[in-house]
Design goal:
The complex is a heterotrimer of chains A (259), B (413) and C (260). Chain A has nine helices and ten strands. Chain A is α/β, with parallel strands linked by helices. The radius of gyration of chain A is 19 Å and the shape is globular. By secondary structure, chain B is mostly beta strands. Classes of the chains: A alpha/beta (259), B mainly beta (413), C mainly alpha (260). At the A-C interface, β6 and α2 of A face α1 and α4 of C.
Chain lengths: 259, 413, 260
Amino acid sequence: MIQIHHLKKTFGRLEVLRGIDLAFDQPGITAVLGPNGSGKSTLLKSILGMVLPDGGQIQFRNKPIDQLGAYRKDISYLPQIARFPENLRVAELIKMIESFRPQVSRSTELIQHFGLESVLQSQLGHLSGGTRQKVNLVLTLMYDTPVIILDEPTAGLDPVALIKLKELIIQARKEGKILLVTTHIMSLVEELADRVVFLLEGRIYFDGKPDSLKERVHEPNLEKAIASLLSGGQLTPLSSNPPSQTRMNGKAIHSILKT
Amino acid sequence: MPRILHLILYFLLLSTCLSAGNILHVGAGKPFTSIHRAIAAAKSGDQIIVYPGVYTECPILVNKPITLSGYGLPVLDGMGEKEGIIIDADSVTVEGFEIRNTGYSYIEDRAGIRVKKTKYFNIQNNRLILTFFGIYLEHAKSGIVRNNAILGKPLGEANSGNGIHLWYCADIDIDGNLIKGHRDGIYFEFATKSRIRNNVSENNLRYGLHFMFSNDDIYTRNTFRDNGAGVAVMFSRRIHMMNNLFHLNWGQASYGLLLKEIYDAEIRNNVFQKNTIGIFTEGSNRINYTDNDFLNNGWAVKVAGGCDKNNFIGNNFIGNSFDFAAVGNMHSNQIEKNFWGDYSGYDLDRNGIGDVPYRPIKLFNYVVDQTPETIILMRSLLVEILNFSEKVSPVLTPAEVSDAAPFMHRYSR
Amino acid sequence: MLRIIRYSFADLIRSRWLYFYTGFYLVLTGALFFISADLSKVIVSLMNAILFIVPLVALLFGVMVQYNTREFTELLLAQPIPRRSIFLGQYLGIASALAISFLLGAGIPFVISGIFISSEIWNFSILLLSGVLLSYIFSALGYLLALINDNRIRGFGLAIVVWLALAVIYDGLFLLGLAWFSDYPLENAAIFITIFNPIDLARILILLKLDVSALMGYTGAVFNQFLGTSLGMGLALIVLVIWAVLPVSMIRFISLRKDF
């Protein structure tokens, strides 16, 4: 479905992506992990055409992605920060996003699912962060698309909503969809992920099943596995590009991961 | 006694019948086909009635006191080289003709109707079309020019004549005429004690009305529109100008009213609207400018040097780009109790007069005088700031040009 | 794109800033009427306010809205709609909301006062038209500034600088230049220079109506030809429209190349 070849992106002097090769063809949940600034969001945004690559290519359904963005009808995206026009009402916003898509929306169902009926007529500026994130989730998940990209979906959610979100994610997996998720919550990754892609300084350092990651470093716990991966000097980027000099101890990486 | 009375009455009746004279008819199928012949046959006091048709026997010389009447607007055609009518006797009336096509000349001032050294003439209800000069009065006295339409075609100042031209005349009434497309609409040179009323003078190349060396004249209730300049009064004394409208006299060096070296004039109750310069005055003294309305002019009043003892009192200045401009010493002039649309002072004692003097000359006037192109910056924020700072602490604008008692409300007329 | 315009407009039209803006013009115009019964004087005073305030508010508003809707823009970018529709739509929404808010604020007192049966109707229409054009031009400039500068303080700072430059400094330099070179024929240069400043252009558009008598007094032939006829009016209008189109095409250019 999605093929990424030698993707490169530089912001000013900062090389954010240094040659990424990835493919997402199998249904299931892929967790894209890495410390802040490792390029996770940039990678996801590149797939959506929000970030324009400096090098390499992204194909969606075997066609290079374009500026007109018609291909985006097959992708649902949850942005990291949810802020909406303050003076629009929730219902208006949902109606607006629906008007951009040809598909049938299941917004009513999701509104019930997250218990948002009571705020439909509220202006978005008056909502709490958690409620806004729920609205954000409704907007993202109300379409039946083969690809779903979630950038920090758990931010600001209360425990009940988190459980409901998980249900939705699991359901999507059952329906055979491709899900890309970034998160800092390792338990969520452990619980849900079929595949882990680990990014650091713009390169992929691991791409495989969570279990194989744990096996590789002999750690039972994913969080520790990654920390161990970083500190154990086993850091070799998977891409064909020459490896960068990465000198970091595990502690530092650990603290980055926690943030 | 009653018999004598009857007798007197009888003779009176008889004499009026006699003085009314005979009526001579001119036209196709009438006793006369030529106006010349009719005049030759006429006696003093006779009336000649000319019927419709085109008469090409110009110029027609009227040399006896008769009434020459057109019936149904007969046409006197100068064929491009002859004057229309020449009046060369006292007590002549000319009425109801269309006189046209005198042609232009560089040698003689050819006229539609010429009046020579006569008195008690009456020229009325005529149409003059494409005459070089319209009605030309020389050394004439005590006559009337009334309700004529004088329509020229403006070519250039050199080959256009004046609509109504007075030269060494006195006691003339010019009333209700329409004058278009000449050099000057009405021209007075050495013309005194005359009255110009209810005329409309427009689209003339130079001035709507022009006085040269003429004293003691009055003009009232006239309209001067879209002329090179509305009215020019030069080297004249005691001219009264009242209730006139000066409108749309636009262009470079264009004025509603131009005053040059005149004395003791009254300018009252006139309206100056949308002229480039409402009044331009130079070397003119002892003039009262009172109760006039200056509306939407470029400059309402421009005083250029050598003007003393003039009074500007009780005028409305509204919507002018510049209210006042002055060059030279203005000390002896009085500016008082005018209403200034731009006045922003207050009236704490509620006596209808602003407590702060108004200075109608702004800094920007000064700037525009120095560098005319800057006019393109008019009404910009920058100019407002400049004007304001000058208002707070005046440096460049003359302090004596100031209305010490500005009126708070517009005078209603 | 129409949908984006509609929603962007619907969002802004409920913003309290716009209510405030409309209210400001209502009070201003109403007060001017109250103070002075002379229509043309009201128009002159209002003109000063419009040339002064509309560009400033439009600039700041354009900057503010662009910054405030950044995250929402990301959500829109993930939808299957072309980029240019998103940005042009947002801009048009802002500009139209501003323009309508201005029209209502300045227009209602005039309508109540019965100007539509007065001879000042044309002056007033030109005034409103200038205000609307300035709203479009300067909200585009503001939006563009915010789009180029990710640093918000710099974005707002630049907006103020642009406003000061076009509202006052430009004319100041212009005036100095005219005074400095007053020995030379300057009319062509003067007209040429004015064209580059939309505030000056809008001012001249109104000037041509209000002060044509004075303008005609100027002796330069080019001035008269330019200012005295409908040619001047038409040209000023056309250039203003170009001024509105130029930043918009810049918005389009930048937005097609920007990362979010």
